[in-house]
UniProtKB/TrEMBL annotation:
Residues 79-94 have a biased composition (Polar residues). Pfam families: 5_nucleotid_C (PF02872), Metallophos (PF00149). Residues 413-572 form the 5'-Nucleotidase C-terminal domain. GO terms for cellular component: outer membrane-bounded periplasmic space. It comes from Streptomyces showdoensis. GO terms for molecular function: 5'-nucleotidase activity; nucleotide binding; UDP-sugar diphosphatase activity. This is 5'-nucleotidase. Residues 66-324 form the Calcineurin-like phosphoesterase domain. Residues 1-30 form the signal peptide. Belongs to the 5'-nucleotidase family. CDD domains: MPP_YhcR_N.
Length: 613
């Protein structure tokens, strides 16, 4: 169903169903110059002209978009808070970016002078959030998005981290069912914008969990938005988070609701898709359509097939999930180029797209669409209202967030590492092995960590007053914000080998997921081969001895992996399960036990996986 709001306080950017009376239309017709026809007057009484900015037949509609904010209210630290720019001479530059105080300023400046401006997002705005938001079940981020004047967003997989009921609370408001109200005397009001979940339905009723589409309207200009998340959401979220829900095919769902919108007279449509691609370059300003033929060769991944099969009536796709930056043209089923965008992650970029709307046809003129990604640089004034929001929540979080946990000698990169084996991944896996190796804790012999669960880097430079090299609770929480419970299970050597091969085969064939492994586990990864053969037979060893397929091993992993998440069904075969402490508690205990101010942790060598390229 379409969501109808009349929030005139937002300068008419939200749904304002406007229309001039017959007298106004008559007056305009009478004033038309000789040779003009009544067809040159729009349905809302505006005369047709060529001025795209205002009231002509062709109207420029600004679409500002972003994705995968993940509750990053403060500027992300280290490499997580940087984007890469390619310079005219071919060199590259790293630019510090992100932070909602700066994002708000950039968006507000971008809207200036635009009569028609919409702000949309493509999911994962909450979930896997730093402590400042995660500690309060992402209420601070919803509050920030309200202040950013977000008009509409799709859900992403991380919107389901705490389940459907919690997502409904994010939309509709109300205090947390167990934590209560975080601010005394104030009830959480929820999102001012609609969350769209067209392909997420109740298994029993078949009805959409949330609104499937949204119609933005102003002065007769109508644009429909359809929001979907990736069909594979159950594979990347804990089973409890998606319990009772069904996730449908993205293309089938978008095409279904495109027809519904068309029947309602809406011919201009944008799909908000929480699924993405991988561009050929990591630079935010990479020319994805360098040859100008709009064939989409500058990007690969799941979004390409989606874009090539979504109805030609959809005028643009705003995407996310892969945390990449791209503005590409991919041909629709009729062979015509169509815009597909993504704005990296963590609020480091926003996309500014001009949609030229034809009042006569009520459709977007595809050939006139223009778009570019822009850096959320930190050289602009902070938005005072967002600064206050952050300061208020920081005051509540401070007693927990600032507590020291351990010490590091230099940056230990996780999210910021492009290697298959990440230094921070080794550290986390070692912490899990250390914490769960005692017989009464599970007797673990090896630990495995999913790379997607490492959400940031450990940064040496102080984030506050704690001092350089000090790891605070807030910083360790940012690295592992899910609070997954640790499991130790019996796993056959055959299934352990199968799991390692599933890193590069099955659902991970085209987008590999290399598990981070604890000390003692070694093997060779040959990327010149294909599929499961990339994990070289005979090289998988534990403490120098080849893994015996017939032997049983005690393997530690978080509950997400133990359930077969991220495309690892072999890990779900484990038996004799022991549930331990949370991954965060295990990590913090390791930091406290293994480091001190005089003996900080060194950067792990990341030499357990031998990679052949």
């Amino acid at each position: 169903m379409a969501v109808k709001r009349s929030k005139t306080s937002r300068a008419g950017r939200r749904i304002l169903v406007a229309g001039a009376g017959l007298a106004t239309i008559g007056a305009l017709v009478a004033a038309m110059p000789a040779g003009a026809s009544q067809d040159d007057v729009s349905a809302d009484g505006a005369s047709y002209g060529t001025n795209g900015k205002g009231w002509g037949r062709m109207v420029d509609v600004q679409l500002l978009s972003f994705n995968d904010l993940h509750g990053n209210l403060e500027p992300p630290a280290g490499s997580s808070g940087q984007v890469t720019q390619t310079n005219p001479d071919g060199t590259t530059t790293k630019i510090d970016a992100g932070g909602v105080e700066y994002l708000a300023t950039h968006l507000r400046q971008a809207r200036e002078g635009n009569r028609y401006s919409i702000t949309a997002a493509a999911g994962d705005l909450i979930g896997a959030s730093p402590l400042l938001s995660g500690l309060f079940h992402d209420e601070p981020t919803i509050g920030a998005l309200n202040k950013l004047d977000l008009d509409v967003t799709s859900v992403g997989n991380h919107e389901f981290d705490e389940g459907a009921r919690e997502l409904a609370r994010m939309q509709n408001g109300g205090c947390h069912p167990t934590a209560g109200c975080f601010v005394e005397g104030k009830k959480f009001k929820g999102a001012d914008f609609p969350y769209l979940a067209a392909n997420v339905t109740n298994e029993k009723t078949g009805k959409p969990l949330l609104d499937p589409y949204f119609i933005w309207e102003k002065n007769g200009v109508r644009i429909g938005f359809i929001g979907v998340t990736l069909e594979g959401t159950p594979n990347v979220v804990t089973a409890e988070g998606v319990k009772g829900l069904k996730f449908g095919d993205e293309v089938e769902t978008i095409n279904k609701y495109t027809k519904i919108l068309e029947r309602k007279g809406v011919k201009s449509i944008v799909a908000l898709v929480h699924e993405g691609g991988m561009p050929a370059s990591a630079s935010y300003n990479y020319n994805c359509d360098g040859d100008g033929d709009g064939d989409g060769e500058g990007v690969s991944g799941a979004i390409v097939d989606i874009a090539k099969n979504v109805s030609p009536q959809v005028d643009a796709l705003v995407t996310g999930h892969t945390h990449q930056a791209y503005v590409c043209s991919i041909p629709d089923p009729s062979g015509k180029p169509r815009l597909v965008t993504s704005a990296s992650s963590f609020g480091k970029l926003y996309t500014d797209t001009t949609l030229t709307y034809d009042r006569r046809t009520k459709d977007i003129v595809r050939t006139a669409v223009a778009s570019a990604n822009h850096v959320v640089s930190r050289d602009v004034p902070k938005a005072a209202d967002l600064t206050k929001l952050i300061d208020d929540w920081k005051a509540l979080a401070a007693p927990v967030a600032n507590r020291p946990q351990g010490y590091i000698a230099a940056d230990i990169n996780g999210r910021g590492s492009t290697a298959y084996e990440k230094p921070l991944g080794d550290l986390i896996a070692d912490a899990q092995l250390e914490g769960l190796a005692p017989a009464d804790k599970g007797g673990a012999q090896v630990a495995l960590m999913n790379p997607g669960g490492i959400r940031s880097d450990l940064v040496y430079k102080a984030s506050g007053a704690e001092g350089d090299g000090v790891v605070t609770y807030g910083e360790s929480f940012t690295v592992q914000p899910f609070t997954n419970m640790m499991n130790v299970v019996d796993l056959s050597g055959a299934n352990l080998i199968a799991a390692l091969k599933q890193q590069v085969s099955g659902s991970n064939l085209n987008s590999v997921k290399i598990l981070q492994v604890s000390r003692g586990l070694t093997y060779t990864l040959d990327m010149t081969k294909t599929g499961a053969d990339r994990v070289v037979d005979g090289t998988i060893k534990l403490n120098g001895e080849a893994i015996d397929p017939a032997k049983t091993y005690r393997v530690a992993m978080n509950e997400f992996l133990a359930g077969g998440g991220d495309g690892f069904p072999a890990l779900a075969t484990g038996t004799n399960k022991l549930v331990g402490a949370s991954d965060l508690d295990v990590f913090n205990a390791y930091l406290a036990a293994k480091s001190s101010a005089t003996a900080p942790l060194a950067v792990p060598a990341a030499d357990r996986i031998t990679v052949v390229k």
